Amino acid sequence: MKKIFLQGAIIVLLFFSALFCLRQVNWMSLFQIQQLSENTEHELGDVLLDVILKTEKEIGNHQVTNAVDSIVSRICESNNIVKDQIKIHVIDKDEINAFAMPNGYLIVYSGLIANSDNQDELAGVLSHEIAHIQLNHVTKKLLSELGVSAVVTLTSGKGSTVILKEALKKLSTLTYSRGLEKEADLKGVDYMINAQMDPTALAHFLMKQAGDENESAKYLQWASTHPDSRDRSIYIIDYIGNKTVNKKAVLSDSTWNKLKENSN
Q: What is the reported pTM?
């Protein structure tokens, strides 16, 4: 009898403990975040892009835009990604940076192109950022950084200049968790292998940045916002292992050289 009573008491205790834990979860907030990530991503991306294009100089040189588009097109076509979902904008800025925004916008600074030793290094960074977009990291991370109310304000067209600038700062210097960063790195490597690009170039780019961070930190924005470059380079090489990569250049040497020249 005592055993039955004890078992009953334990069941009741577990029930109320579970109920207490469930009540601590802000289900409405979680629901709102999910709804916002699905329903307002387009508006959020458009609002933020509008601010960028009003405050920064976009490169209109077709030799630059067409070359970058060719690299992104290869990545998308080889990985069953709808190319129209990735919207590229090349900005004339010395910082070595690229970042993903809501609604599939991919912002690329000319400094990244100018400081890539070869087209596969550039492709590696682009693949990483496309992975963030495809894995739905961007909007969720921004929501967690700014909060639901701030995002609602932005997408309603009532966002203050302060909130808009803060949102853009978060995007251009967005630091993902170690787990999300690694997920995007490895997905980016898969993209490159499928696209017949050299995935070790991403590892080399990261290692190069790890060595240069102290000397030119103000220019290495992508390195400073994506920490542990050396560790990332090591696990990327480990992940590649003995995978077969059939390399095929996207751009001719002359096209790559013109892209670099026009990005300086």
A: 0.79
